UniProtKB/TrEMBL annotation:
<dbReference type="Pfam" id="PF00072">
    <property type="entry name" value="Response_reg"/>
</dbReference>
<feature type="domain" description="Response regulatory">
    <location>
        <begin position="3"/>
        <end position="119"/>
    </location>
</feature>
<keyword id="KW-0805">Transcription regulation</keyword>
<keyword id="KW-0597">Phosphoprotein</keyword>
<dbReference type="InterPro" id="IPR016032">
    <property type="entry name" value="Sig_transdc_resp-reg_C-effctor"/>
</dbReference>
<dbReference type="GO" id="GO:0006355">
    <property type="term" value="P:regulation of DNA-templated transcription"/>
</dbReference>
<dbReference type="InterPro" id="IPR039420">
    <property type="entry name" value="WalR-like"/>
</dbReference>
<dbReference type="Pfam" id="PF00196">
    <property type="entry name" value="GerE"/>
</dbReference>
<keyword id="KW-0238">DNA-binding</keyword>
<dbReference type="InterPro" id="IPR058245">
    <property type="entry name" value="NreC/VraR/RcsB-like_REC"/>
</dbReference>
<feature type="modified residue" description="4-aspartylphosphate">
    <location>
        <position position="54"/>
    </location>
</feature>
<dbReference type="InterPro" id="IPR000792">
    <property type="entry name" value="Tscrpt_reg_LuxR_C"/>
</dbReference>
<dbReference type="InterPro" id="IPR011006">
    <property type="entry name" value="CheY-like_superfamily"/>
</dbReference>
<protein>
    <submittedName>
        <fullName>Response regulator transcription factor</fullName>
    </submittedName>
</protein>
<dbReference type="InterPro" id="IPR001789">
    <property type="entry name" value="Sig_transdc_resp-reg_receiver"/>
</dbReference>
<dbReference type="GO" id="GO:0003677">
    <property type="term" value="F:DNA binding"/>
</dbReference>
<dbReference type="GO" id="GO:0000160">
    <property type="term" value="P:phosphorelay signal transduction system"/>
</dbReference>
Length: 197
């Protein structure tokens, strides 16, 4: 059974991740932390196969802490969790030595796939993040900003611009209200991600 170190500040999220992983029969969440303060010490003193680390839980120095984790436990794989599909953040996380990047709105199936992939020595990125990265690869520098949004993000943005409410948009597009709220929060974010180095 593979040992998991889980760093996530919300108890209910830790419970969910633990349940998802342990029901596979392949993983044991051996240690849980609610913040980044004890992360390095725990990784130095105990052996884990994979660390699942919520970037917001470990604070503003998350990229630095990932680099330190890699240095102190080079055989341990690191799977970063993030609230948003931020390509710039994903690049930084991979640059720091993480093996995977998963958004918190991923499915249980995707979380398990990500853990399997990183433990097999592969890199893993949530489909949402990959899609956002791919959309920007072939765009000329002077492409309109809306070209950097996914088709679904464009639909939601247009509906919001027309003054439609979140619940109406969700119902009409067959989405969850939370998903529409997330897209609403992202409406300015893709532009920031694309132009950051």
């Amino acid at each position: 059974m593979k040992k998991v170190l889980l760093a996530e500040r919300h108890a209910i999220t830790r419970d969910g991740i633990r349940y998802i992983l342990q029901r596979t029969g392949e993983y044991q969440v051996a240690r849980e932390l609610s913040d980044g303060d004890a992360l390095i010490a725990t990784a130095k003193n105990e052996t884990f196969d994979v660390a699942i680390v919520d970037l917001t839980s470990i604070g503003v120095r998350s990229i630095e802490l990932i680099s330190q984790l890699v240095a102190c436990a080079p055989k341990m794989r690191i799977l970063a969790l993030c609230s948003k599909a931020e390509p710039t953040r994903a690049k930084s996380v991979f640059g720091a030595g993480a093996s995977g990047f998963v958004t918190k709105d991923s499915t249980a199936v995707e979380l398990v796939q990500a853990v399997h992939a990183v433990l097999a020595g592969h890199k893993y990125m949530s489909a949402q993040v990959a899609e956002r990265m791919i959309r920007t690869i072939d765009l000329p520098p002077d492409a309109p900003l809306h070209a950097r949004l996914t088709v679904r993000e464009n639909e939601v943005l247009k509906r919001l611009a027309y003054g439609d409410g979140i619940s109406d948009i969700a119902k009409d597009l067959g989405l969850n209200s939370k998903t529409v709220s997330t897209y609403k929060a992202w409406t300015g974010q893709p532009f920031v991600d694309i132009f950051e180095p």
